[in-house]
Design brief:
Layout: E1 6-18, E2 24-37, E3 41-45, H1 52-59, E4 67-72, E5 75-76, H2 82-92, E6 93-97, H3 108-118, H4 123-136, H5 152-164, E7 170-174, H6 182-197, E8 201-205, H7 209-212, E9 217-222, E10 225-231
Parallel strand pairs: 3-8, 3-9, 6-7, 7-8
Antiparallel strand pairs: 1-2, 1-4, 4-5, 9-10
Helix pairs in contact: 3-4, 3-5, 4-5, 5-6
Length: 236
């Protein structure tokens, strides 16, 4: 069960995109209030243009809000300069993308090591952490392979290992099964389920109702606002 301290606290978050002449092009987020306790599994859903991708970018500190406050693990994001924000993002948030975003020239082991390299973790420790995480996702026998030599499901598992290797507070996934067949996608979701069962906060941005139904909380966006926020009984 999640504890009472939120890992994410959004207060009246707005994100406006402007035309070159300064007039408003679109108000992608129109005032979002959201608290996410540690340990929850959340699906963020909504139609195209609802604001879910913008919300994901704000949550992941890939974009900054035009207005409002964002506290990430108790830190006020607005007060962090870009360098500090990058360091906080690298330690606090693990990212998983639909297209995997693995570096084709590197082996799977080297891909998973990348975040630790940027955190200047010593090479021996880096290697041990990477091997442990690859074993965790069932890829201990694929460490020397390159992404092109792996199936889609194996590539996504490698991407999940890379996201987890820094021991983040949040795992943020954007359509993590979008490029996978049904069976492989289900295998990946079972891995997400187990990570949540172990206490990790997981936030999945998805349009797939079946994916959403596996999460304990579903947030629907519409026109840049939270239209519905539902806790699902019986989902761990």
């Amino acid at each position: 069960m999640p504890n009472d301290k939120p890992v994410v606290n959004l207060q009246n978050i707005k994100r406006v995109y402007y035309k070159p002449d300064g007039s408003i092009l679109v108000e992608a987020l129109a005032g979002v209030d959201l608290e996410i306790p540690k340990g929850q599994s959340i699906a963020i859903m909504g139609a195209s243009g609802s604001g879910k991708s913008t919300l994901m970018n704000i949550l992941g500190c890939l974009d900054r809000a035009t207005e409002g406050s964002y506290f990430l693990d108790g830190k006020d994001v607005a007060l962090l300069d870009d360098r500090t924000l990058s360091a906080v993002r690298g330690k606090t948030i693990g990212f998983v993308f639909q297209s995997f975003n693995l570096i084709p020239q590197l082996t799977i082991l080297e891909n998973v090591e990348v975040p630790l390299f940027y955190q200047r973790i010593p090479i021996a420790q880096r290697r041990n952490l990477t091997l442990e995480m690859l074993d965790r996702v069932g890829l201990s026998d694929r460490t020397g392979h390159r992404p092109g030599e792996l199936s889609g499901g194996q590539q996504q598992r490698a991407a999940i290992a890379r996201a987890l290797v820094t021991d983040p507070s949040i795992l943020l996934a954007d359509e993590p099964t979008g490029n996978l067949d049904t069976r492989t996608g289900n295998d990946v979701m079972e891995l997400f389920d187990s990570l949540h069962d172990e206490g990790l906060t997981t936030i999945l941005v998805t349009h797939d109702e079946k994916i959403g139904s596996r999460c304990e909380r579903i947030i629907h966006l519409d026109d840049g606002l939270i239209d519905n926020d539902t806790m699902r009984n019986g989902v761990s």
